[in-house]
Specification:
Chain B: NDH-1 is composed of 14 different subunits. Subunits NuoA, H, J, K, L, M, N constitute the membrane sector of the complex. The structure holds two protein chains of two kinds. By secondary structure, chain A is mainly α. Helix content of chain A is 77%, strand content 3%. A two-stranded antiparallel sheet of chain A has the order 1-2. Chain A is globular and about 65 Å long. Chain B has two domains: 252 residues, no CATH class; 203 residues, no CATH class. Chain B is built from 19 helices and two strands. The longest helix of chain B is centred in the middle third of the chain and has 32 residues. Chain B starts with a helix and ends with a helix. Classes of the chains: A mainly alpha, B mainly alpha. Chains A and B meet through helix 5, helix 6 and helix 7 of A and helix 16 and helix 17 of B.
Chain lengths: 479, 456
């Protein structure tokens, strides 16, 4: 099966959605989202049968750029995450009315197209193009359909755009430099380069700027909370659920194998930055009054830990990071969706204005509680496996990293449960909280189902990603 | 060669139409004529030749750039229909001047003799002076024409002086002879001085820092269509000619010359971008953005022997985006007394198609992937790194980031502000030009080899 089919489905889907008109747009978008999900499951089957899934054709002769896609276990895991979450996100927005919804849903599919491309591309420049392309739809989604004061939103979104663009342009210089050395942008050719330590340090830094801004790691995180708060919930889900995984995925796929010596030299610094993010994010989350901002900072803490896991350069670190990437993707989408459900009823995101939901809607309360517990890595949830593996790999490097990184669980439990208490328990709010609708409930149940299923039986994903991570580690340890 | 004669013939035809009062037919006939000339030019692509004792040399470089100029003129003539609606009686003059301007442009990239080169510059410049001042009743337009004329004729004088010195050193105007002699070891001091003077004159036409002071005022004051012409066609002609001239004179072997190019290139990008950030008038903003793009284009002068293809690609990408942007500006600012950003408020709601086109062209200028502007910058960066000027590339990247700031100011105004008034009418030609230009831009973005390989 041709791997580019999935890209074509999403791109055609984006145009079809736009042409379908405002009324049908959401359904058409969901149809193409599910088609892409189906396609990636077929791809998974082909992969499990041992087929080599790749596609390559010449694109530009000079400079030599190929349209090269290649799916290994890691890519397919990210592909499944992207297509599954895209469908869930589109489905979750059925309860909202958006102006000009044809453009809105078309942009979601287009963004999904760009992100899938990023995860599949095996040519440096093609990868870069998809990486940049994913920025344009989210920019417009956040700008046009976002909430809050227009002027403030404009500032936040433009800052986000310029930050990420600035970071990735440095990555572009690094790619051009590598191209001059290797004469090709293909990842296999780039892996074969023997760069001096000094060169590697520059290239590592250039890549790091791009990824640290996208993930985001401190001190490059300042765009995050404002954009998460101002963007419409769909945009926030896309950003936190999938887009920031592009950065983490790229660290494993591109940055570390291309510059292993620099990565080893700098290891302690970057694990430190990741862990600093964990502590900083957790402490700032404690003080948030806005539910979406609180979730944004908790997300900052979690990805800090994932990044620290990748920079350990061990198999456990990689595996834990990838598992946690997937788990975090689902849980954060679920939590933002819960915030949206509350917003649909209360028209507020301020935590102190909520309360007493439990007595009115016990179903929603229990689902929310499960998501909260999953996010603080309670055993039997998927997040526990990811977070535990990462902490284990950190303890192999230095026990203190694991101890400091472990604060994510303690502090996380503190601020999440405190938030839960304010939002769900307490006195009955004067405003009425209508029970969750069927489609809202279905979305939540799907997400919770995934988290529990892989929490108890992570083997399929583990088997899928481990061989490709071993391959990448081989490249890293080649010198 | 035949191209040049055909273009002049077409210009004369325009004037004759005026006499017989066929004004309505002028624009359709000119468009058809230009399409025919385009075909004629392209057919010469694989048959290099020289005419009139090497006065004109037709080669791949000249043919591909001439074709670009003809396409741009085609767009500009098509826009004229709507733009000069209220000046029907002078339509033939305006169109004919554009056609003669094109003949000057073609002469400038086809020259084989410095005399022809100067002739081309003068034909182009004089047409531009007239067009800049063509809105007779508007004081700003008069000011722009006057300013441009004074500064431009000064630059022409410097170029002429430079040509004289080169002649004094070499005893010939013939570019091939000069090129051969310039490789000898002992060159009179006049020769490099001559090159410097000619380069200064051309940098003025390109509007590179520090010879850029005329550009914002002239761009703002001139009628919008003339501004479109200056910022796309005239700029591209000037940089292509400078490239051709310096290649022939082997200027790049000189280390101090390279340093000068590096400094001017960085200065143009930075000054242009930083000044553009503060502008509220869209034409002024694009003038400064054009200055910074001139800085990017000058980077090609650092690797003269290999960068013809990337120069062609960059200029094509830039001018197509420019044409698309200016057609939207012409539509939006019609019958307004200024081109302030306020006029663009809410365009995304009142006219989503044109807003999308303007957005796309600005994204292309900012260098966002899939638009041609991205590959133009990529190829340029790649070549400059290969030539060993990593510093210039880092400055160029920082400038690309800065430029996003002001391009997005316009995009934000279109999508986040409330519209102030509805615009009536959907002029077909403006829509067609804007759409074709941006589609061409995107197609070139998806298949860069189409243009990049022409001069490889």
């Amino acid at each position: 099966m041709n791997v580019s089919l999935i890209l074509i489905i999403l791109l055609v889907g984006a145009f079809a959605t736009y042409l379908a008109g405002d009324k049908l747009a959401s359904k058409v978008a969901l149809f193409f989202g599910l088609a892409a999900l189906g396609c990636s499951i077929v791809l998974l089957n082909h992969f499990n049968l041992g087929e080599n899934i790749s596609y390559i054709s010449q694109w530009i002769t000079l400079p030599k750029v190929s349209f090269a896609l290649k799916a290994d276990g890691l890519s397919i895991a990210m592909l499944l995450l992207t297509t599954a979450l895209t469908s869930i996100i589109i489905f979750s927005s059925f309860g909202n009315d958006y102006k000009n919804s044809k453009a809105f849903y078309a942009l979601i599919l287009f963004m999904s197209f760009a992100m899938v491309g990023t995860f599949l591309a095996s040519d440096g420049l093609l990868y870069y193009i998809f990486w940049e392309l994913s920025l344009i739809p989210i920019y417009f989604i956040a700008l046009i359909w976002g909430n809050g004061d227009a002027e403030e939103r404009k500032k936040a979104v433009v800052k986000f755009f310029i930050y990420t663009l600035a970071g990735s342009l440095f990555m572009l210089i690094a790619f051009v430099y590598l191209y001059q050395k290797a004469g090709s942008f293909l990842i296999e050719d780039l892996y074969k380069l023997n760069l001096t330590v000094a060169e590697q340090k520059w290239i590592f830094t250039a890549f790091f700027l791009a990824y640290a801004i996208k993930i985001p790691l401190i001190p490059f995180h300042t765009w995050q909370a404002n954009v998460y708060q101002k963007a419409p919930t769909v945009g926030t889900m896309l950003l936190s659920g999938i887009m920031l995984k592009m950065g983490l995925y790229s660290v494993i796929r591109w940055q570390l194998p291309l510059t292993p010596l620099a990565a080893k030299d700098y290891m302690f610094i970057f694990i430190g930055i990741g862990i600093a993010g964990v502590i900083y994010g957790s402490i700032v989350a404690l003080r948030q009054r806005d539910l979406k901002k609180l979730l944004a900072y908790s997300s900052l803490a979690h990805v800090g830990l994932i990044a620290a896991g990748t920079y350990t350069l061990t198999l456990d670190g990689f595996r834990g990071a990838v598992l946690q990437m997937i788990a975090h993707g689902f849980v954060v989408v679920g939590l933002f969706f819960a915030a949206e459900i509350i917003f649909r009823r209360y028209e507020t995101r301020i935590i102190t204005e909520m309360g007493g939901i439990r007595s009115q809607s016990p179903k929603f309360t229990s689902m929310f509680l499960i998501l909260v517990l999953a996010s603080v890595a309670l055993p039997t949830t998927f997040n526990f496996i990811g977070e535990f593996t990462v902490l284990y790999s950190l303890s192999q490097i230095n026990i203190w990293f694991a101890i400091l990184g472990g604060t994510t669980i303690i502090l996380g439990a503190y601020y999440m449960l405190k938030m839960f208490q304010h939002v769900m328990l307490g006195e009955t709010n004067s405003k009425l909280f209508a029970d969750v609708t069927f489609s809202e409930g279905l979305t939540m149940v799907l997400i919770i189902g995934v988290l529990f299923f892989f929490g108890m039986y992570p083997k399929p994903i583990n088997d899928l990603i481990t061989p490709s991570l071993v391959e990448i580690l081989k490249v890293i340890n080649r010198v | 060669m035949t191209t040049l004669i055909a273009i002049i013939g077409l210009g004369v035809l325009c004037l004759i139409f005026e006499i017989f009062d066929f004004r309505k037919a002028i624009i359709p006939i000119t468009i058809i004529g230009l399409l025919a000339i385009l075909g004629l030019t392209v057919s010469e692509f694989n048959s290099p030749a020289s005419y009139y004792n090497n006065m004109l040399i037709v080669n791949r470089f000249s043919v591909s750039f001439s074709s670009l100029f003809i396409v741009l003129t085609l767009f500009l003539v098509a826009l004229s229909h709507n733009f000069y609606e209220n000046h029907q009686s002078k339509l033939s003059d305006y169109v004919a001047i554009k056609i003669f301007l094109l003949s000057g442009a073609v002469a400038m990239v086809t020259f084989g003799n410095l005399a022809m080169f100067f002739l081309g510059i003068e034909v182009l410049s004089i047409s531009l002076y007239v067009l800049a001042a063509s809105s007779r009743m508007n004081i700003k337009s008069n000011e722009a024409g006057m300013k441009y004329f004074l500064m431009g004729s000064f630059a022409s004088g410097i170029i002429l002086f430079g040509i004289c010195l080169i002649y004094g050193a070499m005893g010939s105007f013939d570019i091939v002879e000069i090129s051969e002699m310039s490789q000898s070891a002992e060159l009179p001091i006049w020769f490099p001085i001559g090159i410097v003077l000619v380069t200064i004159g051309m940098l003025f036409k390109i509007a590179a820092v520090p010879f850029h002071f005329w550009a914002p005022d002239v761009y703002e004051g001139s009628p919008t269509l003339t501004t479109a012409l200056m910022s796309t066609l005239a700029k591209v002609v000037a940089i292509a000619t400078l490239y051709k001239l310096l290649t022939a004179l082997h200027a790049d072997v000189n280390y101090s010359f390279q340093i000068v190019v590096v400094v001017i290139s960085i200065a143009s990008m930075t000054v242009g971008n930083i000044m553009a950030l503060r502008q509220t008038n869209v034409k002024r903003m694009l003038a400064f953005s054009g200055i910074s793009h001139a800085g990017f284009m000058l980077m090609t002068l650092l690797s003269l022997s290999t960068s013809a293809g990337s120069l062609l690609y960059y200029t094509t990408a830039y001018s197509l985006a420019g044409i698309a942007a200016f057609s939207v500006i012409i539509y939006v600012c019609k019958n307004r007394d200024n081109e302030d950003i306020v006029n663009f408020h809410g365009l995304g709601k009142t006219n989503p198609l044109l807003a999308a086109i303007l957005t796309a062209s600005l994204l292309s200028m900012a260098g966002i992937p899939i638009f041609a502007g991205f590959f133009a910058k990529l190829v340029l960066f790649s070549q400059t790194i290969q030539a060993g000027y990593l510093v210039v590339v880092i400055f160029a990247v920082i400038n690309s980031i800065i430029s996003v700031g002001y391009y997005f100011k316009l995009i934000l105004a279109m999508y986040t502000k409330e519209p102030n008034e509805e615009r009536k009418g959907k002029p077909f030609l403006i829509y067609a030009v804007a759409l074709i230009a941006i589609v061409l831009n995107i197609v070139l973005g998806m298949f860069p080899s189409l243009v990049l390989d022409l001069l490889a």
